[in-house]
Amino acid sequence: MRASAWRRTFSLGPFQPEAWARRAEHTAALRLNAIVASGFRQDAGGWLWQWDDFILRLPRGEKRECDVIVNDLREVCFEAVYARHFPFGRAVADGDVILDCGANIGAFAIWAAKQGPRVQVHAFEPEPENFATLVRNVELNGLCSQITCHQVGLGDREQRLAVQRCPAGFTMHTLGGADAAGVRVATIDQMRRELGLNRCNMIKMDIEGAERVALAGAKDTLTQLAPCLSIAAYHLASDPFVLPLIVKRANVRYHVIVSADGHLFAFGPT
Known about the structure:
Distance between the termini: 54 Å
CATH architecture of the domain at 81-267: 3-Layer(aba) Sandwich
Largest sheet: 7 strands, mixed
Mean pLDDT: 91
CATH superfamily of the domain at 81-267: Vaccinia Virus protein VP39
Strand content: 15-25%
Number of strands: 14
CATH topology of the domain at 81-267: Rossmann fold
Structural class: alpha/beta
């Protein structure tokens, strides 16, 4: 039987390596999600996730919150997605100072702190309920000496903004219009000065589409310290093109990679 007739008979169509690879990745992700889901349990305080010595309590204790965060837990704890495309696949070394921008309830901050006893993480989360849960999770994991929590949003200038809660899930809240009673928003450069940080080894950022304004407020940090960057570049359609330009304009020596799944990785000369 000729190859063309064989394809028609079995409806396979032309060989498409990229489509097959995406299908394989999707299947692998579903299998890992099932493994992650096995770590959820309920107690008197609501729902939490526990894997070995990693504990993460959810904000409101509702079962649907498990479905909201299962992908994030897979990416952070099982796939190390925030480190995947750095040299040798490693982003955090013992003794590093890390800024976790958009810390949510602490998954990445806790993972990073567990990479070494001298790792120091500054975790920024403006939404009040998530911030309270972040603080609680840091305490549950015994990491108060390594993780400092800040109820601050990050942008390109000092201001106060209203929190816009997303009904679809606690990982997708955003900041909206000016509000004198809202949460504080500051720049990364300003926070670094306030905290007296003369070193910054890595910035992780996932802030629901505000990445470009936060990077604009980090120009001095990128220029002077050149920390590794691991940034969500999938919230806005133009992020894969705009975010690398902002990074390179701040420091032309950065090597910048945008992965197929929409994460930006940047690092200096190695």
